[in-house]
C-alpha cells in the first residue's frame, strides 16, 4: 500500500478555521472573562492550550494507520460506555450548565459524550463494513446497530445533553443511509423521531416553548426568545463589514457566554456579512475535502469512517449556524473548531487527524 | 458496483450540506438587508442610554411681542450610578457641595436605576455649585442644561398664563392648555452602555432638543398693565372680597386684557390655595349682573320696536306691582315722568319692568339666549362658568319683571362683555379668544392662527346704533357720568347687584360693576369692571366702578391711538362737575383780548412784550375749566 502525503487543503482549512476561532474566542469572551475571572485572556489561554494539543494530536493521529482502529473499535466503544456511566455518578461527574456531563479537572473539563460520538462512528463503520451482506435485512443488519445507538442516546440523555445526543443519532443514521439501507426504513425512523420528539416535549415542556419561540422569538423576549433576539441584535446591525474586530456591543453582557454556542453571531457583528461568508466558505472546503476522502478511500471501513466523521462535523456545524441565524430552535450545540470547549475541540482535531490519515491511502485514479 | 451506490448517496448528502451552508449565508444576508432597520432600532434602544436635555419651553408673548413667559437656563445634576467607581468618595464630595447628608447622597448613588436625578437639591444649580461639581470630574456624574420657566411680570395675568411644575410641565392656565405645543421635544446625549449599565468607549450622539411652539396672545401689555394697576388701587382703596376687569375688542372678540384679585405669583405658586390659583374670576365667577343686564332688555325692546326712546314716556312712582310682588326702584320715591331714554339714563327699574313686559317672556328669553347667556362663550381658556337663566316654562310675570333689570339671573363677566359687545358693535356676537397665534420657534412663522368667529347676528345695525346712543347718554347725562371722557364719546352702563347667599339677598353686600366702551359712534374697546363688596364707600356702581373704567379707557385711548370724536352728546353738568371748554386761539392778540377770551382758564405769562406769540395748549384743544394756559409774550 502506498503512503501518500495527507490532504494539505483540508489541513490548511482546519488550521485557518481553528485559528480564526481562537481569535474570535478572545474577542468575544474578553469582557465576560474580565468580569468573571478578572482575566480577559482566561478563555483565550485555555482554548489556546487545547488548540496546540489538538494540532499535535491531529498530526500524531494522522500518522497512525486507521486500520489499527478496526481491531480496537470494540475496546474503544466499551471505554466510552464506561466513561458515560461514570460521568453520571455524582462525585465523579460534575454539573455544568445544568448537565452532569463533565469530568472536572480544575477549570478544564472533559466531556465523555464528545468521545462517544467518535467512538460510535468507529464502531458503526466497523460493523457496517463487516456485515455488508446483512444491511438489506432490517432485522438482522440494522436493528442491532440502532439498538446500540439508542442505548448511547439514552445514557447521554440522562446527563441530559440533548444536542450531543441528536448529533450522535444523526451520524449513525447518516452512516446507515450511505451503507444502502432501504429508503422505507428512514421514513419509519422519521416517524419514530417525531414520536420521540413529542415524547421528549411531554417529558420537559420547556422544549415546546423553545420551538414556539423559534417561530416568534419576540413573544417572550426576556425568556425563551432571549438568546435568539440577542443573536439577531448582533447579526442585524453588523452590516456588510461589521463593527470591526473587537467592537461587538452584544458581547458586553447582552449575549451571555458569547464565546460558546452563539459565537457565530459575534463573528458577524464584528466581521459583518463577509465574516459569515468566510466561515461558511471554510466549512464548505472542509466538508468537500472530507467527502472526497471518503469517496476516494479504498476500503469500506475507511469510507464509512471518513464519511461518518465528515457528516458529524457538517451536521453539527449546520445545526449551530442555523440556530444562530434563527432558522432552527435553540438546541445548545457548539460550532466545531470555533466555539469555546476543550474536549470538543480535541475530539474534532483527532477526528480530522483520522481523516487526514485515510487521505494517505487514496486511490490514484480519483485524485 | 457496490461502491457506486455509496458514492451516489454520499454526493447527495454533500450537495445537500453545501446548499445548507449557502442558505445560512443567504439568511444572514436577508437579516441584514430586510430586518436591519427594525433590529438596529431595537438594538440601539437596548444599547443606548440617554442623558436628557430639556427643551426650551415655548415663549408666551403679548400681541406686540412683549414676553410674558420666558425661560432661563439652569444646570442640573444627573448621576449614572453604574458608572460611579468610587461611590464613597463621590457621595462625600457631592454631599459637601450640595449641602445634603451623606446618607441622603448614598441613597441616590446606590439606587438601582440607569439615570438618577438628585431632586431637588441637584436641580437648578447656580454657576458656582456647577463649577465645583464639574471640577471634580467624576465618572458617572453629569451636569445637564435645563431650562426653567420665568415670568417677568410675576403675578400679572397669572390666571390666564398659569404656571409650570418643577419638570416644566404645564399645571394650570394656558401653560396647561397649550402644554402639548409649549413643551417642545426634549433632546438627549446618547451613549452606548453594556448590559450592566457601564458606559462603553464609543462616540456619543447628540440629539438636539426641539424648542416648544411660541404662543402669542391677544393681550395688550399696556392695557393689561393698566388693569393690574387699577385692580391694585381698588384693593388698596376698598378692600373688596374680589375684583375683576376685562377689556375686549368688540369688533372681533379679542381679549385685550383680563385680570382679577385675588391673583397669584406663578413663580411661587406653592404659596397659594387651589381656589386662588384655579378661579379665573372673569370667566369663572357667576353672579347676578344687576343693571348692566338692562342693556339686553333695551336691545330686545328696540329690536322688537316696542319702544321709541324719545317719544314714549313712563311714569315712575317708585315701585311697580307685579302679581303679589312689589318691585321698587333704586331711587326712593321714583324718577317721576321720564322719556324711555331717561329711563335708561336713570337705570329706572320699573321702567325696565315695563320694557320687559312689552317685549314679552318668550321673546325676551330668546334674546337672552341669543346674546349667549346660560352657556359658555367658548373662550379658549379652561374653567369657564355657564351661569344660570330661568327655564322658560318656569318664568312667571315676577321672573320676567326681575330678569328685565338683571335680577334672578346669574351670568359670568365674560358673558356680559361679549353680549354687550354684540349689542353695540352692530349686533354681531363674537366668540371671545385670547390666543392670537402659535409661532414656530426658529422662524417665528405662523403655525396656527385664531381669527374672529361670528357666533350669530343678534340685532341689526340700526338697533345697535340706538343702544349706543342710549348708553352714551347714560354716561353723559345719567348714572355713568363718572366715566365721562371729553371728546371720546364714552358709552356705558352701571350695575349694582345685591349678592345672594343661601337663597336670600345679603344686606349691604353688593357687586358694583360698570361696563363702558368708546367711541360711542364706532366702539373700539369695551371695558368691564366688577368689584365684589367694596368697603367704606357708597354702594353704587357709578360711584365706585365707573371711575376705574374711565382710567382704563384713558389708557386704552393712548395704547390703541384712538382718535378724538366730534358730535358727541355734551355732558350735562351738575353744580359740582368740572366743565370742559375748547381753548380759543389767542396767538397774535394783545394781552387784554386774550384775558377776555380765556376767562374760564388760569393764565400763566412768560416773556415780555405786548403780543402773544406762543400758546400752550394750542387753540382748538379741549381742557377742563380752570386749567392752566401758558402764553408767551413777545414783540411782533
- Which architecture of the largest domain in chain B would the CATH scheme give at its second level? 3-Layer(aba) Sandwich
CATH topology of the largest domain in chain B: Beta-lactamase
Tally of helical runs of chain B: 20
Terminal CA distance of chain A: 16 Å
Unreliable sequence segments of chain B? none
The oligomeric state of the chains shown is: heterodimer
Radius of gyration of chain B: 36 Å
How many strands of chain A? Answer: 3
Query: Can you summarize the main beta sheet of chain A?
Result: 3 strands, antiparallel
Query: What is the residue-averaged pLDDT of chain A?
Result: 88
CATH class of the largest domain in chain B: Alpha Beta
Spatial separation of the terminal alpha carbons of chain B: 147 Å
Global geometry of chain B: elongated
> Using only CA atoms, what is the Rg of chain A?
20 Å
Q: How does the overall form of chain A come out from the CA principal axes?
A: globular
The main sheet of chain B comes to: 7 strands, mixed
Low-confidence stretches of chain A: none
Order of helices and strands of chain A: HHHEEEHHHHHHHHH
Number of helices of chain A: 12
Q: What percent of residues of chain B are in strands?
A: 15-25%
Quick take:
The complex is a heterodimer of chains A (367) and B (636). Chain A has 367 residues and is mainly α.
Amino acid at each position: 500500500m502506498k503512503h501518500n502525503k495527507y490532504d494539505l487543503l483540508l489541513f490548511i482549512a482546519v488550521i485557518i478555521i481553528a485559528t480564526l476561532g481562537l481569535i474570535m474566542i478572545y474577542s468575544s469572551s474578553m469582557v465576560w472573562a474580565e468580569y468573571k475571572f478578572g482575566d480577559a485572556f482566561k478563555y483565550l489561554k485555555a482554548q489556546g492550550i487545547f488548540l496546540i494539543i489538538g494540532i499535535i494530536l491531529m498530526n500524531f493521529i494522522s500518522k497512525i494507520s486507521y486500520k489499527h482502529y478496526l481491531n480496537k473499535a470494540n475496546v474503544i466503544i466499551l471505554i466510552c460506555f464506561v466513561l458515560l456511566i461514570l460521568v453520571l455518578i455524582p462525585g465523579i461527574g460534575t454539573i455544568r450548565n445544568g448537565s452532569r456531563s463533565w469530568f472536572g479537572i480544575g477549570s478544564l473539563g472533559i466531556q465523555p459524550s464528545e468521545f462517544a460520538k467518535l467512538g460510535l462512528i468507529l464502531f458503526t463503520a466497523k460493523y457496517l463494513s463487516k456485515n455488508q451482506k446483512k444491511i438489506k435485512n432490517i432485522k438482522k443488519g440494522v436493528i442491532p446497530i440502532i439498538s446500540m445507538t439508542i442505548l448511547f442516546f439514552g445514557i447521554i440523555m440522562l446527563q441530559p445533553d440533548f444536542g450531543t445526543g441528536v448529533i450522535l443519532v444523526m451520524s449513525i443514521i447518516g452512516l446507515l443511509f450511505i451503507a444502502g439501507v432501504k429508503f422505507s426504513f428512514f421514513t419509519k425512523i422519521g416517524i419514530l423521531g417525531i414520536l420521540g420528539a413529542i415524547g421528549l416535549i411531554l417529558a420537559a415542556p420547556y422544549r415546546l416553548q423553545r420551538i414556539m419561540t423559534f417561530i416568534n422569538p419576540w413573544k417572550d423576549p426576556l425568556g425563551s426568545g432571549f438568546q435568539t433576539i440577542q443573536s439577531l441584535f448582533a447579526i442585524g446591525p453588523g452590516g456588510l463589514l461589521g463593527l470591526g474586530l473587537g467592537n461587538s456591543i452584544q458581547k458586553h453582557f447582552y449575549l451571555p457566554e458569547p464565546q460558546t454556542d452563539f459565537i457565530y453571531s459575534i463573528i458577524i457583528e464584528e466581521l459583518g456579512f463577509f465574516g459569515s461568508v468566510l466561515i461558511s466558505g471554510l466549512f464548505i472546503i472542509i466538508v468537500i475535502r472530507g467527502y472526497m476522502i471518503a469517496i476516494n478511500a479504498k476500503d469500506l471501513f475507511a469510507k464509512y469512517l471518513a464519511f461518518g466523521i465528515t457528516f458529524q462535523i457538517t451536521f453539527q456545524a449546520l445545526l449551530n449556524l442555523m440556530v444562530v441565524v434563527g432558522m432552527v430552535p435553540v438546541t445548545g450545540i457548539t460550532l466545531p473548531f470555533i466555539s469555546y470547549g476543550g474536549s470538543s475541540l480535541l475530539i474534532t482535531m483527532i477526528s480530522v487527524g483520522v481523516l487526514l490519515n485515510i487521505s494517505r491511502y487514496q486511490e490514484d485514479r480519483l485524485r | 458496483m457496490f461502491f457506486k451506490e455509496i458514492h451516489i448517496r454520499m454526493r447527495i448528502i454533500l450537495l445537500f450540506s453545501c446548499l445548507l451552508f449557502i442558505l445560512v449565508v443567504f439568511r444572514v444576508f436577508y437579516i441584514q438587508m430586510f430586518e436591519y432597520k427594525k433590529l438596529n432600532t431595537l438594538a440601539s434602544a437596548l444599547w443606548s442610554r440617554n442623558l436628557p436635555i430639556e427643551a426650551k419651553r415655548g415663549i408666551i408673548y403679548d400681541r406686540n411681542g412683549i414676553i410674558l413667559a420666558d425661560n432661563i437656563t439652569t444646570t442640573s445634576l444627573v448621576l449614572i450610578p453604574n458608572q460611579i467607581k468610587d461611590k464613597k468618595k463621590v457621595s462625600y464630595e457631592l454631599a459637601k457641595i450640595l449641602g445634603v447628608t451623606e446618607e441622603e447622597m448614598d441613597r441616590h448613588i446606590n439606587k438601582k436605576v440607569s439615570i438618577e436625578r438628585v431632586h431637588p437639591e441637584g436641580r437648578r444649580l447656580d454657576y458656582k455649585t456647577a463649577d465645583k461639581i464639574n471640577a471634580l470630574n467624576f465618572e458617572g456624574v453629569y451636569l445637564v442644561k435645563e431650562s426653567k420657566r420665568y415670568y417677568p411680570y410675576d403675578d400679572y395675568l397669572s390666571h390666564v398664563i398659569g404656571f409650570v411644575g418643577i419638570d416644566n410641565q404645564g399645571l394650570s392656565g394656558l401653560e396647561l392648555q397649550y402644554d402639548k405645543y409649549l413643551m417642545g421635544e426634549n433632546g438627549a446625549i446618547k451613549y452606548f452602555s453594556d448590559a450592566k449599565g457601564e458606559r462603553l468607549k464609543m462616540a456619543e450622539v447628540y440629539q438636539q432638543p426641539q424648542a416648544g411652539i411660541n404662543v402669542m396672545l391677544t393681550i395688550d401689555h399696556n392695557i393689561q398693565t393698566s388693569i393690574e394697576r387699577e385692580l391694585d388701587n381698588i384693593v388698596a382703596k376698598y378692600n373688596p372680597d374680589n375684583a375683576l376687569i376685562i377689556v375686549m375688542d368688540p369688533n372681533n372678540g379679542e381679549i385685550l386684557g383680563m385680570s382679577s384679585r385675588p391673583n397669584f405669583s406663578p413663580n411661587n405658586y406653592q404659596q397659594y390655595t387651589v381656589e386662588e390659583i384655579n378661579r379665573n374670576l372673569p370667566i369663572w365667577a357667576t353672579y347676578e349682573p344687576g343693571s348692566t343686564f338692562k342693556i339686553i332688555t333695551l336691545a330686545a325692546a328696540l329690536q322688537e320696536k316696542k319702544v321709541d326712546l324719545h317719544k314714549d314716556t313712563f311714569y315712575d312712582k317708585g315701585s311697580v306691582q307685579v302679581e303679589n310682588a312689589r318691585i321698587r326702584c333704586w331711587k326712593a320715591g321714583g324718577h317721576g315722568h321720564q322719556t324711555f331714554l331717561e329711563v335708561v339714563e336713570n337705570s329706572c327699574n320699573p321702567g325696565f319692568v315695563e320694557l320687559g313686559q312689552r317685549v314679552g317672556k318668550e321673546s325676551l328669553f330668546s334674546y337672552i339666549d341669543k346674546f349667549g347667556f346660560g352657556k359658555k362663550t367658548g373662550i379658549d381658556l379652561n374653567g369657564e362658568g355657564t351661569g344660570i337663566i330661568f327655564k322658560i316654562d318656569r318664568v312667571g310675570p315676577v321672573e320676567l319683571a326681575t330678569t328685565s333689570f338683571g335680577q334672578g339671573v346669574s351670568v359670568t363677566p365674560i358673558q356680559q362683555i361679549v353680549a354687550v359687545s354684540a349689542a353695540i358693535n352692530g349686533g354681531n356676537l363674537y366668540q371671545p379668544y385670547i390666543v392670537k397665534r402659535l409661532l414656530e420657534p426658529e422662524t417665528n412663522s405662523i403655525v396656527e392662527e385664531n381669527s374672529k368667529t361670528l357666533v350669530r347676528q343678534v340685532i341689526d345695525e340700526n338697533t345697535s346704533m340706538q343702544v349706543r346712543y342710549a348708553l352714551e347718554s347714560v354716561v353723559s347725562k345719567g348714572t355713568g357720568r363718572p366715566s365721562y371722557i371729553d371728546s371720546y364719546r364714552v358709552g356705558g352702563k352701571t350695575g349694582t347687584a345685591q349678592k345672594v347667599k343661601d337663597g336670600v339677598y345679603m344686606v349691604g353686600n353688593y357687586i358694583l360693576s360698570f361696563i363702558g366702551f368708546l367711541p360711542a359712534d364706532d366702539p373700539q374697546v369695551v371695558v368691564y369692571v366688577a368689584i365684589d363688596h367694596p368697603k367704606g364707600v357708597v354702594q353704587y356702581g357709578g360711584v365706585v366702578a365707573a371711575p376705574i373704567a374711565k382710567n382704563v379707557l384713558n389708557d386704552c385711548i393712548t395704547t390703541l391711538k384712538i382718535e378724538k370724536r366730534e358730535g358727541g352728546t355734551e355732558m350735562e353738568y351738575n353744580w359740582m362737575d368740572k366743565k370742559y371748554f375748547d381753548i380759543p386761539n389767542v396767538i397774535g392778540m394783545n394781552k387784554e383780548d386774550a384775558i377776555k377770551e380765556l376767562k374760564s382758564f388760569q393764565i400763566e405769562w412768560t416773556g415780555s412784550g405786548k403780543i402773544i406769540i406762543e400758546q400752550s395748549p394750542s387753540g382748538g384743544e379741549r381742557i377742563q375749566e380752570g386749567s392752566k394756559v401758558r402764553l408767551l409774550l413777545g414783540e411782533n
